[in-house]
Structure formats: C-alpha cells, structure tokens
Specification:
It comes from Pseudomonas synxantha. This is NADPH:quinone reductase-like Zn-dependent oxidoreductase. The chain has 346 residues and is of the alpha/beta class. The chain folds into two domains: 165 residues, Quinone Oxidoreductase, Chain A, domain 1 (Alpha-Beta Complex); 151 residues, NAD(P)-binding Rossmann-like Domain (Rossmann fold, 3-Layer(aba) Sandwich), CATH 3.40.50.720. Helix content is 32%, strand content 25%. It is built from twelve helices and 16 strands. The strands form three sheets. Strands 3, 5, 6, 7, 8, 15 and 16 form a seven-stranded mixed beta sheet that branches. A six-stranded parallel beta sheet has the order 11-10-9-12-13-14, with helices on both faces. A hairpin with an 8-residue loop joins strand 1 and strand 2. Helix 3 packs across helix 4. The two termini are 15 Å apart.
C-alpha cells in the first residue's frame, strides 16, 4: 500500500512510498482511510521532538487523525464490522494515518458522525479529544466559569471554544486582526487581537486557561487567573505526573521535573495549579463528541483540503501557523480494490 513516511528525523524529509499492509491483531480494526488531517504534532514528531518519550522505529508513517471505512476486524472485536464508517485518533504508539490502510485498536475508534463528510470527520479526533481532555476531564469546567483559550483560530482553539460554550462557560480567546469577527462567530465572548492588544492587560479573574503557545504566553497566563484557578498547557513543559503516566524512566522524570519546576513554582505562588495534558486516544470520549457533532453543538472547521500527493505541502502549510481550523488530506486510491482483494485473501 502507499503511505507518506519518513526514514529519519529531520525537517521536510517525508516521502510517499510503498509499505506492507498492516497486520491485524485480535483487538484491531482494519480501516481504509478516506481522509486524514495534519496537526502540529505531525511536524514535531517528524523533527524528532518527541523521540525521547515516543521511540518510533523507521520507516515511520506519519498521521494522527483518520476517517474511513472498516474493511476487516480481529477475532476479539465486537463493536465494529466491515462497512462501518468510523473515525479516530489512533494510540500514540501506533500512529500512521497518512496511508491507505491502518490497523486501529477497537477502543480508540468511534462511529463517524452521520451528518458530516469524511473530510470533516477526519479534521476532528485529535483536536476534539484534546479540548475534551483539557476542559471536561482535567479542568472539570462548570457553567458560569471563565475560560481563556489561546489561539482561537487554530485547530484546538476552534473546537475548544465551541465545547466551552456548550458547557456554559464565559469564553475569551486571542487571534489575529483578520480573524477577530470569524472567531467571535464561533461563540467567543471576548476576542483579543494579539497584534494590537495584550491579553494580560485586559483579562482578570479567570478560572481556567488552555495554553497552546510558548513560555511567554504561559507565564503571562498566570496573571489572569484567580486563586484556585487552573493553568493547563498542551504545549509544555511536561510535568513529573506526565512522566509517571507515560511510564518513562526516572531520568526522564527528573528532566521533566526540572523543566517544569519554574512554572510550577510560580503557579503555587499565585495559588493556582499547573497541569500538562498530552492527549490520548479514547473511543468512548470520541463517541460523546459524536453526539455533540450530530446535534449541531460542535461543527468542524476546515481551512484547506490537499490531495494525498501533496501531503508534504500540507505539512509545510500547517507549519506556517496561519491556518483557520484544520488542514485535511483527502485520499483517493485508484488501486484500492486490488489492495482490498489482497487483504481479504490473506
């Protein structure tokens, strides 16, 4: 089958090549990928930024989102059958959605929302699960609370705004001048033009901050939180608790303790908490998100769609940091019938 892969870590070194079809375990579902989407995470993985905590082997197929059709199931699979339309963020140790086929653990999958296209569905899993795990699972955001979401026009931001409003929160966010009204239409109550205004000079007494940017924004975010507030970052620095969750070595745990010591110390001084969230695959949570999508509460936001042959260009486009919502890759496989016949004949 064809796939977009890398043979080593480095910038702009991906290629489209032929690889063996994935092996199907007892709890795996074989999915023919119809669409996938690009995340900043894909670029970071390809550059080797996560090689200490995610030790992938090469050649490595990139890709962390998928929407497609089930074409085979393992012997222990009970929730899915061939022909089902599904979507998912595969587990972090088994990424590879930039490909014709992928084997995904059953518990990471959910049925695709019926009211959206494959391309729209593919834009959602990673960012929607990130927003859910920050706002619902970690922050336990309550009706009437105030939440500040950095980068409201980004992939996570566009979904987090919609989810926070559904939860009954008052939402503030940042974006560039050209996107202010567009982001406000997503539901944000306060939209700050970061090119003209400093959020830390405008906002105060917030309960939760979702940070997806750098160290400067992270530290400034502390100043707008009320005592007891929560600063939750998806861009780091990682914490000792994260090292424990990932079952990393004591050395890496020590490194993460040192890396996050500064922000944790400053958070304690401000009487707020700091947490790092590295989203995980979860088909059950994705099923709850599906209900919100089918009821019209959460709507996918797509910036641009690229053909599979232009995957490298799609990655470069996302790296520029200017996309509004998600960048999607549509897969059309002229030889799909031949590949599926080979799979079914195994």
């Amino acid at each position: 089958m064809k796939a977009f892969l890398i043979d080593r870590y480095g910038k702009h070194n991906g290629r489209i090549g032929e690889v063996p079809a994935p092996e199907l375990g007892a709890h795996d579902v074989l999915v023919q990928v119809h669409a996938t989407s690009v995340n900043v995470l894909d670029s970071k993985i390809s550059k080797g930024e996560f090689k200490l905590i995610l030790p992938y082997s090469f050649p490595l197929i990139l890709g962390n989102d998928l929407a497609g059709v089930v074409v085979g199931v393992g012997s222990a699979v009970r929730r899915f059958k061939p022909g089902d339309e599904v979507y998912a963020r595969p587990p972090q140790e088994r990424i590879g959605t930039f490909a014709e086929l992928i084997a995904v653990e059953e518990n990471a999958l959910a049925l695709k929302p019926k009211n959206i296209s494959m391309e729209e569905a593919a834009s959602l899993p990673l960012v929607a699960l990130t927003a859910w795990q920050v706002l619902v699972e970690t922050a336990r955001l309550q009706k009437g609370q105030k939440v500040f979401i950095h980068a409201g026009s980004g992939g996570v931001g566009t979904i987090a705004i919609q989810l926070a409003k559904h939860l009954g929160a008052f939402v503030a966010t940042t974006t560039s001048t050209n996107n202010v009204e567009w982001v406000r239409a997503l539901g944000a109550d306060v939209v700050i033009d970061y090119k003209k205004q400093n959020f830390e000079s405008i906002l105060q007494d917030y309960d939760v901050v979702l940070n997806s940017l750098g160290v400067d924004e992270l530290e400034k975010s502390l100043t707008i939180l009320k005592p007891g507030g929560q600063l939750i970052s998806i861009s780091g620095p990682p914490t000792p608790q994260f090292a424990q969750q990932q079952k990393l070595s004591w050395v890496l745990g020590l490194v993460m303790r040192i890396l996050s010591s500064g922000i944790r110390r400053k958070a304690r001084k401000k009487e707020v908490s700091y947490a790092f969230v590295f989203m995980r695959a979860d088909g059950s949570q994705l099923g709850e998100i599906t209900e919100l999508i089918e009821s019209g509460i959460i709507k996918p936001v797509i910036d641009t769609t690229f053909p599979f042959e232009s995957t490298a260009e799609a990655l470069s486009y996302v790296e520029q940091g200017r996309s509004k919502g998600k960048v999607v890759i549509k897969l059309v496989w002229p030889n799909s019938k031949h590949v599926l016949e080979n799979i079914n004949g195994m």
